[in-house]
Specification:
Length: 347
């Protein structure tokens, strides 16, 4: 394909409506259909790329993920958008597991608490990327009993009530019965006769964790990452819960971000709007010159290529500038005279 950007493949803007996307797809699919291009390998590859783009952009959830991360290969809040950088950080966490979600296939100790940590970021940190140090408290498995909850020299035994299943069946009368947590072991499937003195049979101890988190360019306010196994450990050897990092980005007094793009409004002099010219525009990387065409109307939006967020995967956002016409608050007699002449000429 000529472009890796799905919107460019379909020839539509990022704000295109579902109807516009469907219309563009149908036109391109018809143009590159094998019946119209027999034996044309390039047309075949192009059609595959068009189908791939439409599959993502026609699905609201996939489109949201693509707009945010540049990929639609994952769902929900997880680590895929950040590659392997977080993987290395949390690899030393006791109980750390793979990213993603799943259910335990058999009864056993319940998982630990899922923790939520908010990471405040300035607009600049979210734009350029940064490294933040965070600290939080969690529980880990007791070192003395290794999380079993049983004192040294002893070990838990299978619960006689549920026979290790952690669940018991309760009759509701007739042929109906329901499964409920075993009242003897609390669902653990095991009972402890001699509890560990250090953790009092819970199998847990407190830990203060401090880590440095690399923030990639382009993080948005409210975005969250789920680190599976980064939370607190479960009692009696139960698995660790998850750690959720939530980014809170402060607003900027001049710019507004949407994905990789930056938006702003700027007043331009009346003379520049009429005769055209070059003005200096503030960007996140300093002042940059922008050309304004003749007879520019208020509300016109100019696009400054590559002045938005530069993501780690090589994508570059733009800066969009919406101009307003600056009207002088006070006029000299000479200025007023010329404007009256201008008005009479144009009616």
């Amino acid at each position: 394909m000529a472009s890796d950007d799905y919107y460019e493949r379909l020839g539509v803007g990022r704000n295109a409506t579902p109807e516009e996307i469907k219309k563009a797809y149908r036109a391109l699919a018809k143009k590159y259909h094998p019946d119209r291009n027999p034996g044309n390998k390039q047309a075949e590859d192009t059609l595959k790329g068009i189908n791939e783009a439409y599959e993502v952009l026609s699905d609201p959830e996939k489109r949201t993920n693509y707009d945010r991360w540049g990929t639609a290969d994952f769902q929900g809040i997880n680590m895929d958008g950040f590659g392997d950088i977080f993987s290395e950080i949390f690899r030393g966490f006791p109980g750390f597991g793979d990213f993603g979600f799943g259910r335990r296939g058999r009864a056993g100790p319940p998982p630990g608490q899922t923790l939520r940590v908010t990471i405040p970021l300035s607009f600049e940190d979210a734009f350029f990327g940064a490294e933040k140090e965070i600290a939080f408290n969690r529980h880990i498995h007791c070192e003395s009993c290794r999380g079993t909850g049983a004192s040294a020299g002893s070990s838990p035994r299978t619960c006689p009530t549920c026979r290790g299943r952690g669940q018991v069946m309760r009759s509701m009368g007739g042929f109906m019965s329901v499964s409920q947590t075993c009242p003897s072991c609390g669902g653990a499937g095991e009972v402890i006769d001699t509890p560990c003195k250090e953790c009092r049979g819970k199998g847990l101890q407190k830990e203060r964790r401090e880590i440095k988190v690399p923030i990639p360019p382009g993080v948005e306010d409210g975005q969250a990452l789920r680190i599976r196994g980064g939370g607190s450990a479960g009692s009696r050897g139960g698995p660790h819960g998850d750690l959720i990092l939530v980014f809170a980005v402060e607003p900027h007094e001049t710019f507004i971000r949407k994905g990789l793009h930056v938006y702003m409004e700027m007043e331009i002099p009346f003379s520049i709007a009429v005769f055209g010219g070059e003005i200096e525009v503030p960007t996140m990387r300093g002042l940059s010159k922008m050309k304004v065409g003749k007879t520019t109307q208020g509300g016109t939006i100019f696009r400054m290529k590559g002045k938005g967020v530069h993501s780690d995967d090589g994508r570059k956002g733009d800066q969009l500038v919406r101009v307003a016409i600056q009207i002088p608050k006070k006029l000299t007699k000479e200025q007023k005279k010329y404007l009256e002449e201008f008005d009479s000429v144009f009616g």
